[in-house]
Every structure is written in C-alpha cells, then in structure tokens.
Amino acid sequence: GSSSTMEQLPWDPFREVPDISDRNSCNSCIKWSIKILKIVFILLLATLVLGCLTSSKVSLLFITASMNPFFKFRETHGHAYSWKNATYSTCGVPSCMTQQEKPNNNVRWIWSLHMAMCVPYVVCCLKSLWKVTFKMKAAPKGSTVLWVLLVESLHTCGLFMFAFLGLPRLDAFRGILTMCALGFVPSLLRACRPGLKTGKTERGLDILSAVIQIGGIIAWLVKRAIDYWPIAIGMVLISVVWWENFIDRYQEDIFKFKKSWFDRITIRLENHKRDIQKAHVKLNIYVSLWKLIFSTALLLAFFGTEYFPWGVGWDALFDAKNFDADDDDDLDMDYDWLILFAAQAAPGLLCKYFFTMAVRAAIQIPAITIPMVLSTPVALAVSIWACYDCSNTWQLNAEDRLFWNCFSGHEGLTDVLIYRWGVIALLFWLAELWTTRYLWYPKVERLAKTERIFTHPFYCSLTLGQSLAFNRRRNDEEFELLGNKKVKRKANDLEHRHPDDMNLDETKVNVKPPSKMNPMIYCCATMWHETEDEMVQILKSCFRLDKDQHARRMAKDVFRVKVKDYYEFEIHILFDDAFEPHLEGDTNFEVNQFVKQFCRVIQDAGLAVHNVRLASMYVPEKVETPYGGQLKYTFPGGNKMIVHLKDKLKIRHRKRWSQVMYMYYLLGEKLWARKDINSKSKQVEAENTFILALDGDVDFRPEAVRLLLDLMNRDLSVAAACGRIHPIGSGPMVWYQKFEYAIGHWLSKSTEHVLGCVLCSPGCFSLFRGSALMDDNVMKTYTRRPTEAIHYVQYDQGEDRWLCTLLLQAGYKVEYSAASDALTYCPVGFGEFFNQRRRWTPSTFANILDLLSTAGATAKKNQNISTIYMIYQISLFVSSVLGPATIFLLIVNSLTIALTIHPAGSLMIVLIPMTLFIIICLVAKPDVQIAMASVLSTLMAIVQVVVLVGIMRQVAGDGLCHPNTMLLIFMVGTFIIAALLHPQECTIIFHGFIYYLAIPTMYLLLIIYSICNLNVVSWGTREVPKTELEKENERKIEEKNQQEKIKSSNILTELGGSLGIQEAKDGIPINCGTLCRCLCCVKDGLSDEARQMKDMQVELEVIGKTLQVMTGQNRAGEVAETAFSLKSGRNDSQENSEEESGDEDAEDGDSVASSVSWIQDKDLGRGECKELHYDEEVFWKDLIAKYLFPLAADKIEQDRAAMQLKELRNKSVFSFILINVLLITLMETVSMSIESEESLGIRWNCTDPITHDIKEVELDPVAIMFILVFGIIVGIQFFCMFGHRLMTWLQIVSNTTI
Hints:
By secondary structure, this protein is α/β, with parallel strands linked by helices.
C-alpha cells in the first residue's frame, strides 16, 4: 500500500486532486487595480512635478521683478521712460501696462526672496536633527567641515548675486533662459575628465556643452559688464556646489609616473567626497546653520547700506511701512509678498519629495525626467502668454500691478523668439539637457536611500530645476555604502592563516556589492510535528519559488533578456527528531510518521502548483550522515531541496540548534571554507548570500521574497528583513490573533522601522544577510549553551528575538516590509495559545532588558539606534509591565460606574479571582492553570461587556472634552484609520470586538500566567507523549551516567585517602555525598584539624558536583563520537559477523543502503542511496563535536537549572506584583482624595464641542501622566504608520509592471 502512494502505476491513472485554496493569492482584479493606480500615480506625479518646477520659475521672476531698483515702471506702447540714466525704448508690449514708481517698494520682496532661499536650509537642519535624535551618526573631521563651509559659502554668494542683484535687471524671457546656463562647473568637469567608457563623439559634445555654458557667462560680461557682472559671477559660483557629482573615481595609470595638476586635484576632491559621505548627517546640521547665518549677513551687508546702488538702508529694511503697498499712513500689511514666498518655497519642498518618491518607485523617467525637460519651455510659454495678454488673469494686486519685467528693446514676439534670443535659448537648453543626460538612465535600486539618490543634501529653491538635476547622483554604482569595517591587513596574508585565527573584521571591505553578482537565497525551514495541511502549505511555496526562478533563469540564459530581479535559491528542510525511538547503536529503525507524511504530501503540493504529478519527486537521493540522513530532491525548475533528518541521539535537537546547524553549513562550510576565491570575494559573496528562515507551516509567494530583497539591496547595514505575517485558522482565538497581529504590524513594527530598528524579525518568515550573521558576536554567540536561569528564557524560548538582539548589538539594522505577505497557522486552542505566549512573553522581556542594559554601547556601535529611541523602548517596556495594573483599575472603575456600587466592592470583585489565579499558577499543575485561566477569561469577557457600558456612561457624563474621552476616541480612531490605510486587510477591524473582550485575558491573566511559569522552559506546542522505547532509552542513558558517577567517586575516594585521615569513635564526618567518607578524631571540641577537615568537606562536595558535570559533558562527547562511528551503521561485533557471513547482504552492491534500515524504507521513495562527500562528512563530525553534540541527561545539572529558574521566577513574580500593587495603591489613594478638600487633582473648565456646555474636569496627576504617556506613544505610532505606508506604496509601485 505504501508504494502506491509514492509512484504512479500504469493501471491507476485516476487522480484525487487536493482542494487546497490559495489563501494569499492576489486575484486579477487586484493586480489590474494596482496597475491602473500606478498609471494614475505616474500621471499625477508628473503633473505635480511640472507644476512645481514652473511655479518655482514663475514666482521667482515675479519677486525679482518687483524688487527691481533700476526701473519702477511697466512699459506702455509708444512711450519711453528713464530712471537712473537707464533708458528703455518702446516695444511691442500692449498698452495695458501702466507706470509704477514708488520708493522702497522692493523691501518686502527682498525679505520674501531671502525667506524662500532659507527654507531648504531649515528643512535640511530639521531632518538631520531628526536623524541624529533617533539614529546615532558619525562626526565629521575638522578639515572636511572647513572645506564644505567654503564651498557652501561660495554657493551662497553666487546665489545672492544672481537672484538679488542679477535677475531684477532681466526680463522674464532672459531670466528663464539664463538659468539654463548654470551648469558651468559640471559641464567643465565632464569635458576635462571624461569617464573610461566615453567615446569621441560623446566627449566632443561634452566640450561643446561646456563652451556654450562658458559662452553664456562671457556674453553677459561683454554686453554690459558694469550692470551684468553679478549674473556672470553668480552663475559660476552657483555651479561650484555640484562638484561632488562630477568627480569620478580616480583611475591610476601605471604607465604614468607623474600625476598632472588635474589628477592631484581630483584625488584631493575624491578624499573630501569620501569624508563628506561618512559624516554627512551631522555635517548637514553645521552647514545649514552656517548658511542661514551667512545668507542673512549678506542680505544686511548688501541692502543695509545706501552706498551701493541697490541699497535701501538699515532702517528701511525693518520699517513696517515698506511692507504696505499703499501710500497712506495705514500700517495694514499687504500679504502678496507672503503669497509669492509660499508659491516659491512650497514647490521646492514638494518637488524634492516627489523626486525622491519617483526614484524609489522606479518611475524616474516618466514622472521626473520628462517634466524637468518640459519645465523650461512651459515657463517660457507662461511668461510670453502673460506679457502679451491684457486680461486681469495675471494681476495679483490691483494697487500694485504686480507683474514680470516683460521684454524690452525689441520689435515684438517674433523678434524675440527668432532673431534675438531664440537660438541662444535653444542652445542653453540643449546644453543643459546634454549635461544632465544621466537622468534618462537611472541605475539605482528600488527604495533607494536618499544618500543613494542625491549627492548633496540640500536643494536650492531659487534654482529648483537645475538644483535637482545636477544634484541627482550621476553614477549610482560609484556610491559607497559605508559602515562596514575596512581591511586591516592584506587578503593574501589571511589565506595562509589557520581558520580558527581568522577574524571577519579583517576582511570587511568598504565597497558596494557588484551588480553582476546574483543573490543566493537559502530557504531554511525547521520542522517537527507539523500537520499534513501545514506541510503542503510550505511545499507549495517552495514549488512556486522554483517555478518563478526557473522562468527568470530561462529568460536570462536562453532568451538573453536582462532580468533585474534574478536570484538563485536552494531549499533546506531540517526535521527535528526525525526517527522512531531507538536505542543508541541500533541500526534497525525507521523514520517517524511525520517524515513519511512529508514524503507523501510533496506530491499533493506539486500537483496543486503544476497541475500534474511530478515523477522526480518519487526518487529522492538518500544519504546517511553523521547526524542522521538526507533526502535530496530536484524540483522541476532544476533547484535542489535537501531534507535533513536529525537523529536526536547523534545531534542536538530543537529549533535554535537546527538554525546553528544550517548557518554553519551554508555560511561556514559552503562559503567561507572555499579555497577557490580570496577573502575579499568571500566577503562580497557573503553580502549577497541570504538565508530565508521559515517555519514548517508558512505560506508565501515569490513576490514576497523579492520585496524583502529590495530592503537588503538598498542598504548593506540591513542584516534582516521581515514581512507581514498573517495568522490563519478559524475560531475565536484565531480572530483575536488576526487583530493582534494587524495592530502589531500596522503600528508597532512600522514605528520601529521608521524611528530606528525592528527589534524582532520572526523566524517564520525572515530574510537574513549572510555577512551579518558571520560577523563577530553574532553566529558564534548564538551557539552558547545556557548556563544561567535567564539564559534558558532568552536563548531558547524566543530564539528569533535573541538573534535579532545580537544583530542590533553588532551594529546592524532590522527592517520591515508591509508588502511582503506570509501566512502561518496560529494556535487554535486556548491552552496552546497560552503555552505559546508563555514562551514569547518572558523571552521578549529578557531580550529588551538585555538591549536596554547595553543601550550605551549599542547606540555607539549601531548608527540606527539612538538614546531617544531607547527611551521610546523603555516607555513601551514600562507600559507592558504596568499594563496589568492599568487594566485592573480600568475594570474596577468601569464596574463602579456601570453597576453603581461602591469602589471597594468592585475592587474585591476583581481582586479575589486575580489573587486566586496567582496562587494557582504558583502551586498547581499547568493543566489546572489553563483550565482556571479559561474559566476566568469567560467571566472577564462578560465583565468587559459591563465595562463597555460603564465607559459609555462615563463618556456621556464627562463629555467629549474630558481627557479620558479624547484618549478613547483617539485610540479607536487610530485603529479605524489604520484599517482604512490597509485596504486589503481592512475587514480585520471587525475582529476588534473580540480583541476588546480579551483585553483582561491577554493583558492581565496571560501576563500573570507567563511570569508565574517562568521556570517552565518546555516548548509547550506540538508536543507528543513519549513512547515506552523512548523512556527505556532514557533509563539506559541514566544508568550509564550513574556508572560515570561511580568512576568519579573512586577518584574522590582515592583523593580522600591520600589525605591521611583516619577514623575514630568520635569525630567529624568528612564526605562528598555518597562518593567518599572518612572520620577525623577530636577530643572535647573542634580542633584546628577538625575545622580544616570540615572546610575540606565543603570543598570536596563542590569538586564532586563539578566532576559530575564534567563527566556528563564527556559523556556527551562520547555520544557524539559514537555517532561518528555509526557512519556505516554497525559496531565491531556486527563487522565481525558480516565478515563471516560474506557478501550475502550485499546483493545490490550498495553498502550504504544495507547499513541502516530506514534508508530502505519504500515510503521515502525509490531513489538511489548515495554516500556523503568526505569533506562534508568531516565538517559534520567537527561541527557536532564542537557545538551540536547531544546533551547527556545530568540530574545534578538539571536540578541546579530548575532551582535557578524557580529562584528567577520567584523574584520576577515578587517584583511584578509589588510594582503593580504599588501603582494600584497610588492610583486609588490619589483618586479617593479628589472628593476631599485637600484634593490632589487638577481642575479646569472645558467646553463640549457638541453641546457647548462648560464642564469642570478634575483629574489626579498620576492619571494625567498616564494619559499623556499612552497618548504620546499612540500618536508617535500613528504618524510613523503614515510614513511607512507611503514607503510600502512606493515598493508596490516599483514592483508592478504595466
């Protein structure tokens, strides 16, 4: 019957197709909706960018025309006006333009332009302060600061000359085209030092572009140097700030013995560029503040004196009358200058943000490049239309006739466009387009960080288009991802060192991984006692991943298509306790039912994905290994799946040790132990090697993996990335967990991602970077055995959280992608759920305490974690610890209001069952505790309905202006808005009522249950009863341990006899437990020798315990050695008997297949039996001997650990109860004093926004503090959720093809 399940017989073609629904599949309607939304998003973004760029140019020319000190009039047809020896002839401008002349008219426009210029500095300063506050950043060097301040000062001077002194002299047409000639330094650098791949034609055009830019500057000097010199000098100085983007990496020529002056300058600038990159955040703060001060000083120096032609005087700058356009004495301020300030400053803010969004969403060309190209022609068209339109469309101020400086000295529009400035404008525009041609070839990865997009942190609001174009990073591949350690010695030296002496610090290189290196993903799943549906779920995910990768490989290799998201992958599934119970040394045993079930359902999973049964899945290769065995499958796409069958008698079991097993195998043996590449290549390969940690019941799609890869590719400091976990199942417990998971991801994880780092990347679906795991104090530390009570809680109860804690402490970052969806089965039963959270809750507390205890060192080492972020985590931790007291008081107060009973009565109603539950959790068995918790949960759910009535009554009585009511509305509103921002999950909000009913259970009973069972370190889920054979095996192991103890007792007996101690009738017994005993004679009292003998008794007892532990460890080593000797599956006696019997058992010539019985099991398929490669066999033996040898049962060590865990439990329970009781006492005492005359409460009057009634509100200080703390926490999470949702949308757009 078993064979029929493994292969298709010719007479049995009939199928039973499994009905397995695709729970996380995105139907075609949603896919098409996303595509349509992407098109709309691109069009909207392109329109906004074009509007912002046009508005920036138009508003700038409005302002500069209004502050023109040289002519205070508008030209009219047939007339000419002169002022300050400047004569302007008649022109073709319509007669609707009227004369305007008023002294000091330009003061308010000077301030308007100055404020617009300073907005980017303020924004950059605030943004940098935010990063420094929540993420520690390196400090810049003094020389770097001086260099940057010098360059930025030149830029500020140039901007001041160009905008304040030059543009007011120009009409709108010439002003717009002159801004196209601001790329003097960029075009000059491109012409002087072309790239290595630059051809002759391209270089010639670079030179021509530079000549045109230089010609534009010279033209202004030649025409009228005395009037237009600020324009020429300003154009040069403005372009200096973009030097960083056009300095290529210096390529040294080995045949060039002497460097030219340009090479030396390039090397010096490149060094400055690297230093700026390292400390750009703090440097931005210094530069922003300096530019604010320096630009204001220039304003006061140029316009504060009347000695300059453009000066207005110090008093006039601050005279309120100059902000009024009327001639009367009324000091009412006109706000037209503020309107134009907003029209000039706001587009810069928006356009910079839109630019970043478009690059991250991989839509730069349609949304940014095309609008930037069109912005100049559109701005020119708008100015021409306005100057030749006599309607009131362009009239902003009826009294002031606010307008541009229109064209002068020409015979009409045709004369302007064709004969005078049209050709020059076209040349300037084409030169700018050629210099910024890299905008058409973006190479940056999706979701790129700002530093990868722009070379300079600032933008210039006055020259917005040119600033963004020249500031966009020209060479994306040149950008160095900093933060890794540099090589301390040559790589060649490392190749000759012993592997144990190798330090990964010495091989870290400061380079970005080359784009040609394909990511290698190892999908590693741990299995134990999963059900059939759970196994099918993960196998379907593996088949889908294989199908996706095969399609990409075919497109790449066969059709020669450039595949951007190409990757390679391999699957490793590790089965814990994969064999039926057997005795040590026994070879006649089989795999357990779960392994057979896995081999059976793999066909169902393949059928569900490929709609056909796969013949290759019937014939896995079978390999016997030092830890058990392997089953090697080949998927239809050619990818491998290796199933590792672990024998707990040969290797250590449980999930953390399985993770250690595959980490050392994949990263240590298959990567770092390679001899065909050098250490630098190993490091780069490690940065492109990823481990996808999975649980045995997870369901995901290939898109989810690629979304996690996006986060890895954008930043080398990201060590782990997790996706959105969706619990599946049915029943009230599942409904509760769906809402709980949703709130945790919507608010908590999003906030951690935005503010600093995610603290836990769940092991059910997370992607880890190989180089980060291989770093110091990560993978090596992860192999620690628990030696203290807190270790049992932190290390093995929540291994995924501990691994993330190690990564954060090592300086890496953990991120979260809300678009990467994965589904996993969650506990359905009440007891299973409580046992799961009994592991998670203490582990969470232990890891957070560990992180907080090393907050200072972690903040120094990790650039993404700051002291402020740690304060945020402390607030959450304190809120969690005090949560039971808060819920307790909420229930008591609500019962008092709802049932109109005395507060003491409601207090006793809640206090008595809580006290009883604590006692039961401390003394009763786990089953009794779970039963009691389920009964109390039911009663608490009923109480919550009463509490809801009490809350409603309190809201009705207090009104909407009461702080409690406002906090309640804010929290409920936060959940509703969060659900609306997650449209595919918004129906989860209906499970919120179940969540509300379970609040006392989860925040009161579960916390009590977890802390009171802190000493229980069993897994608690998927447990199966031990068989009689397992019990017999444990008994035999215990007997062998006793024999080891007898051996140690003989050692101690000889040690006691060597002391020369003799017995007497009366004396002091000297013993080491039951191992040795002697008697020392005394007389009337204790002699000195007797005292010495008594001290020796204590020491011998300690030595005896130590030796017992040591023998236990040696025993474990012997177990490992025995496992190695079982490679052939037989002992010496078996070998002798087989030699005598000849070759009777080797009919098929396969010695491996006949060594153990499990490998011949037909339920595993009819594949070939192969031998393990010698090098891999040696690796497994060494790994087991060093880290993974089975831990022998040691009664003394177990008793010691149990005693320490109970002591930790007792301390934790006492501290927990004490803190919460103190809070309850404080709150109740203060609240009772409110009604008295000596009330400690704070009173104020508030007006209800609906009834407009004035009510007196009184709250005690403690309540106000709690409301503020919880309100601030929820508020921070609410706003961070918005930021993370935007990033998620950009990630979805970037991965959607139209």
